[in-house]
Specification:
3 copies of one chain form a homotrimer. Chain A is α/β, with parallel strands linked by helices. In chain A, 37% of the residues lie in helices and 15% in strands. The two termini of chain A are 16 Å apart. In chain A, 57% of the residues are buried. Chains A and B meet through α2 and α10 of A and β2 and α3 of B.
């Protein structure tokens, strides 16, 4: 049985580590703590979160910090590796073994795929993966699921497109793996050069009803959720290829005329041009509200791994 | 009538937006909260300030953070744009629409003139302008006024010189506009290349008794307040021009022999050479005490816009 | 007589400033506050620590911040000079005279040898030296002493080797000076190019039983404490010299076969190659636990200089 004790002291590293019952438990807790985000709380008073960000981030770092402050806890850390001892040649393992003396829980972002696993192994306190290279971004997947529940009342039965850079985009990797626990239809929509990463396909095959396609327009009318991501120009060897696909997935108000009235458009943000600003004030736009759900989910996670919920 | 309700949820963007009654109300509140700066308070417990600094700053950022901590609130943010999602090409509007989910009030510094206005339009929570390019720095003007009241017992009747770079210096722009609400005599003292910015002149003309001059020495004996600013070397095309005017406005103990005994010397800081350190231990020197008034004023503003005062 | 009143408002700048009775008082307080590090406290509620780090640091900065948060206080500051007004040409004295309005105590790291002294002179609030160029790092020495007490039950009677870069290593400077207050035998073990700094030798001569040597292997069997430090490659003009001495002091499990069973290996961290990771899971390894003692010592110092202990 899944209960709060299942999470105390636990690392949050990969969506591969969570089954349906656990995901639903976390999402329910996120809903439960939502009022505390408005009025504040002393639930984690005396506890300290270390935010170790070896890569730049606005939303993930500030979201973790906000979640911790809303629960009455304290925050320390760094926003870039240059100001840390990594600049002196320290290994990640050593950094973690020191920081675990200073804090009760660690939220970390790192450019290496295996950094979160390495950190979790080194640490005696819980480590939450805030993005590990192109591999995974599990707390983003959780907030994505929570947003879908808020927007649609539930996740089962939805038709969902993950659109854009599915090869390097860590948010869609975690989300695809998470979605294999739900009864959904998923389209992986990308240019051929950026098809869904092989190990994710391996992990979802047989457990998720998915289709790979490059034609967003054709499937648009069926979608309940359109989850857009940035197509990163620097991944393309030929700029002409980039220019071609960039426009294929550019979502604007005119494009959405072909969509269901209650289509929900999500994006992990930051966006550049893949969602036009004329979508922002349509009912489709959920990407800013989505950021708010990050607070609820991270409050729930911090409270759970610290044994306070 | 101006009361606390006039400020709840309000943005603090420009000194153009405040009349005499409002300024006095804020300054009175700043005096009122002064004791809380010593003993601390739980007035803003559970509230979060986001400090978004797209330009480096010691005093303004730390002053806002200190004010928030003194009131029992929490703080998150960044001290330079490089660690934020702006590095990924995000617009300011998008950044603000995300951050408003993480905090209850935003204090922002940005190199663009219109950034504070843009941010305030985007945000559903109050935005306080902590410096917007060369345009305005309204909280600095408020702390300047509060310092004048502390030093002189009031502002009406004072003879005040704003000295140095009046073209690019945002602090003197906000201060000049604020002073139009008081019965004062103001000298705008600058080299010809750095005369008071045109739109400020337009805004104060007919509402402020001012004179533009390049001769500080001549007016020195009349002054109650000498407000010095940095003359920025990089603004001059001919270094010889800079060398000439730099010395014209260098204030040292010998120069102040020609001043009133109770002349108050102020400076928004940081200073480089425009006030010699031999002035620091004279009774004229108010520039370090001035920094302390920033705490009181920012405590008052945070408390007011969050509806807690 | 030494009591809490001896420390209220006091600067912590150099181990030269503390006698045996004072050191023991601080170390006893550090042991006393240890339980508060686990359960948190409101001892410094309403107080603010400014961490001014003009040089990168993970452990010292985060350790101070953790200590302050554990005691219920607030923290502000900067992790690198670029984001501060130093970039605009402000003197350290001016920066300090401003920051003292924002905080109740300052912890500072600076590349200049005399920076901590300059800051303490400028400030009306207590300044704690978190590392001043190659000169001193007094709070590190205190946590080193506290670790020795924890590992060995006391400091008197120990045989201690300080190993590595004794010329530029600020931690061993402070530790050597601190140890002159105890009845210990100390070996200064270094390559000839990096022998213990002259002014430290002058300060300990006649008050500390020490021997300078380059042969760690020969003295290893006698040691109770082996305190390793990084040998910094960039200090050597001839890379061949570096390669030779680097290996002379590389400590691994095989090397420690010649040591006492209860030898305690310490290191201020970060390490690079001077202690092999195969030592990490031996009982000799105290360097990660050592970091935890930094919290206790800094909690004690913050509480003492703020008059709360």
């Amino acid at each position: 049985m899944v209960d709060a004790a299942s999470f105390k002291g636990r690392d949050i590293i990969s969506m591969r580590d969570f089954n349906r019952e656990e995901l639903d438990f976390i999402l329910d807790k996120a809903t439960e703590v939502q009022p505390l985000a408005e009025k504040g709380s002393d639930l984690l008073k005396g506890k300290i979160l270390a935010t170790l960000f070896f890569e730049p981030s606005t939303r993930t770092r500030l979201s973790f910090e906000s979640a911790m402050l809303r629960l009455g806890g304290g925050v320390l850390g760094f926003a870039e590796p240059k100001v840390s001892s990594v600049a002196k040649g320290e290994t990640l393992t050593d950094t973690i073994k020191v920081v675990e003396s200073y804090a009760d829980v660690i939220a970390m972002r790192h450019p290496s795929e295996d950094a979160a696993v390495v950190a979790a192994e080194a640490a005696s306190i819980p480590v939450i993966n805030g993005g590990s290279g192109p591999w995974e971004h599990p707390t983003q997947a959780l907030l994505d699921l929570h947003t879908m529940r808020a927007a649609k009342g539930g996740i089962d039965g939805l038709t969902i497109a993950l659109v854009g850079d599915l090869l390097y985009g860590r948010t869609v990797h975690s989300l695809a793996v998470a979605l294999r626990n739900y009864d959904v239809k998923v389209y992986f929509v990308s240019p051929p050069e950026l098809r869904m990463r092989k190990d994710v396909i391996d992990d979802v095959k047989g457990r998720l009803d998915y289709v790979e396609t490059g034609d967003l327009k054709a499937i648009l009318p069926k979608l309940d959720i359109l989850y857009a991501t940035r197509v990163q120009k620097e991944r393309f060897s030929d700029p002409a290829d980039y220019e071609k696909v960039k426009d294929a997935f550019r979502i604007d108000r005119a494009f959405l005329a072909g969509a269901k009235k209650d289509l929900v458009v999500m994006h992990p943000l930051p966006r550049v041009t893949e969602i036009a600003t004329d979508v922002d004030d349509t009912p489709h736009a959920w990407y800013f509200r989505q950021a708010r759900h990050g607070i609820y989910v991270r409050m729930a996670l911090l409270g759970l791994v610290l044994g306070a919920l």
